[in-house]
Amino acid sequence: MAAVTGKSDYGDVVISLENCILDDDQLKNTPSIKDGLDKEVEIDLRIVGCEYIQMAGILLKLDQVAMATAQVLFQRFYYSKSLVKHDGEIYSMACIFLAAKIEECPRRIRDVINVFHHIKQRRNARTIQPMEYMGNSYFNLKNQVIKAERRILKELGFCVHVKHPHKIIIMYLQILDCETNTLLAQQAWNFMNDSFRTNIFVRYSPETIACACIFLSSRQLGISLPTRPPWWELFGAKLEDLEEISLTLLSLYTRPKANLDTLQKAVGEIRKDLAQKKSDKADGAAAANNSTPNLSPTGGTTAARDDSRTGSRPSSPSSKVSPSSAASLTDGKKKKSSSKDEDKRTSYKQRPISRASRRSRSPVNRRSRSRSEAEVEADQEVTAYRSARPIISAEAGRKAATKAPTNKR
Fold first, then answer.
1. What is the four-CA torsion angle of 75, 78, 84, 89, rounded to 10 degrees?
2. For residue range 84-96, what is the model confidence (pLDDT) as tens digits?
3. Where would I find the Cyclin-like domain in this sequence (predicted)?
């Protein structure tokens, strides 16, 4: 279902419940091969990672659907990231931890780490010892698994839905009237579980894979199915795809079992080579930066700029100046400075008077001005009254005060 946008379309957002199918270029040119990993080593690492997930799912008592989801996520992730740069053991833990939550049967991360630690000890024939919960190794491993889970979700774009063909096998057998043949159903189911260790789930649809499992089981058990018309055409499959899937499954059984230590050693050597190339590239870039002079914004080099700051003078003979030329230079500078001062004076004289120097005519200023004039007038009246009033002696003033009538209540 494509999103409908306006006039400026920049791309389509496709939402589908079908499994992700990769093209031939993505299948051949994987990130691991680009980093220098051999193709056969990559296939062995994928098989070992899926085997670890299957064994851990059995010990964790997960459903087969959850284990299948984890293996498909593991295969999908390493078609976008390299096995050289991302440890397969850490990401197998993260895949099963994430798949258990997707299929609604979550497990604690502590249990997942303990189960993988147990499988690793058994595979290396060591004495089984539990991991210390309070140790640094446990906390570091736990943080790595959590980060790996986030990276898986980021690289897959949170498209973690997986359509499994287990139910499709049962439905197809019912259509072919073979649901009562438990041997055929069990054989096809086993082929289906083993196919998760290969990359056929990123190459073909689940319907085609279900037909291939029934096709291979019927051939091995000698059970005849309708061929006129071919029964697989009823389900939209092609004979070429069925044969290719069958050959991939049979090659899985005939493939020699890989040694995990040998695989890790090969990956470690490639990691060292990549680290060496990276360091050489960084050293070359640093040498190139040191060899090229850093130009200052004014056009000179940093060395010349440092000389000007420290006050050091160049020792070249062309830099020496005679006294007569020095005197002429100073006179020229004085003339230039005097001419600049005259220009400033003339420009200042011609400059118009700014309005800020004028008194503002706002109502507030008018009120303040009127108040000050009234006060001045009052002061003038007081002074005039005092000047017109006759001078009275102190004794006359006392007599006048005694003769003045008193107010009686």
1. -50
2. 999 999 999 999 9
3. 51-154, 167-251
